């Protein structure tokens, strides 16, 4: 009987096998994303002119109140959810549960995963409060300082890749929620205003929704209202 031994050229070494175990946080993300991917999901997408929002942000910054775009998006989403309650819902085994409280999850990227702390009663809060809570939750999530309750009872999720080169993307649903909004980067783009072509700051919003709970037309109305509120800078 002979024994075969693998050999390598002089000076070479076998490459070490590297793996990422699907346990702990990574395992929880894998299970959650698998469940979300199995839903019959549909994506709607719209480009939004942020000219008025950016003007408002500049005015607030000059007054010492620096606000992120995400805070304005959260405000628009929260108000649109109040007007379109079918998107503020959780899907159960044989029913869709409409939730009265509007609790928006905000995706926070960590070094080894993604966490989604929740802003509760988001429709009752002005942009400045939404901005402050988003900062606090993001800092707490990255420091591992949030309790389990901070991640519970979400009814809709917003995930923002505006700090990356990504223009648009279709996020995976965060089950049992029936909707999630993906926000791309703000970019300068040619738009038509009063018959003239001008440059304007534009962001893409992509709504992914569970078609078992919501049909395409009402989902389009919901996304259209978010876009309208941002383009007209409707903020209480």
Automatic annotation (TrEMBL):
Residues 16-234 form the 2-oxoacid dehydrogenase acyltransferase catalytic domain. SUPFAM superfamilies: CoA-dependent acyltransferases (SSF52777). Its cofactor is (R)-lipoate. It comes from the Bacteria. The lineage of its organism: Bacteria, Pseudomonadati, Pseudomonadota, Betaproteobacteria, Rhodocyclales. Gene3D superfamilies: Chloramphenicol acetyltransferase-like domain (3.30.559.10). One of its GO terms (molecular function) is lipoic acid binding. GO terms for cellular component: cytoplasm. Transmembrane segments: none annotated. This is 2-oxo acid dehydrogenase subunit E2. Pfam families: 2-oxoacid_dh (PF00198). InterPro entries: 2-oxoacid_DH_actylTfrase, 2-oxoacid_DH_E2_comp, CAT-like_dom_sf. Keywords: Acyltransferase, Transferase. Signal peptide: none annotated.
């Amino acid at each position: 009987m002979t024994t075969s031994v693998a050999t390598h050229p002089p000076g070479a070494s076998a490459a070490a096998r590297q793996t990422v175990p699907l346990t702990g946080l990574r395992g929880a993300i894998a299970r959650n994303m698998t469940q979300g991917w199995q839903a019959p999901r549909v994506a709607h997408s719209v480009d939004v002119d942020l000219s008025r929002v950016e003007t408002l942000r500049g005015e607030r910054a000059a007054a010492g109140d620096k606000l992120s775009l995400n805070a304005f998006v959260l405000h628009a989403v929260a108000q649109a959810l109040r007007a379109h309650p079918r998107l503020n819902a959780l899907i159960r085994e044989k029913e869709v549960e409409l939730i009265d409280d509007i609790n928006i999850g905000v995706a926070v990227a960590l070094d080894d995963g993604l966490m989604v702390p929740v802003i509760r009663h988001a429709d009752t809060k002005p942009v400045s409060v939404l901005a402050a809570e988003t900062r606090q939750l993001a800092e707490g999530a990255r420091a591992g300082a949030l309790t389990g309750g901070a991640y519970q009872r979400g009814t809709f999720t917003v995930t923002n890749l505006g700090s990356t080169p990504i223009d648009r993307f279709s996020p995976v649903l965060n089950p049992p929620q029936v909707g999630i909004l993906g926000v791309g980067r703000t970019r300068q783009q040619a738009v038509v205003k009063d018959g003239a072509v001008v440059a304007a700051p534009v962001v893409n919003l992509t709504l992914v929704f569970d078609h078992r709970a919501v049909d395409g037309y009402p989902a389009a109305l919901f996304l259209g209202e978010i876009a309208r509120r941002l383009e007209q800078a409707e903020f209480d």
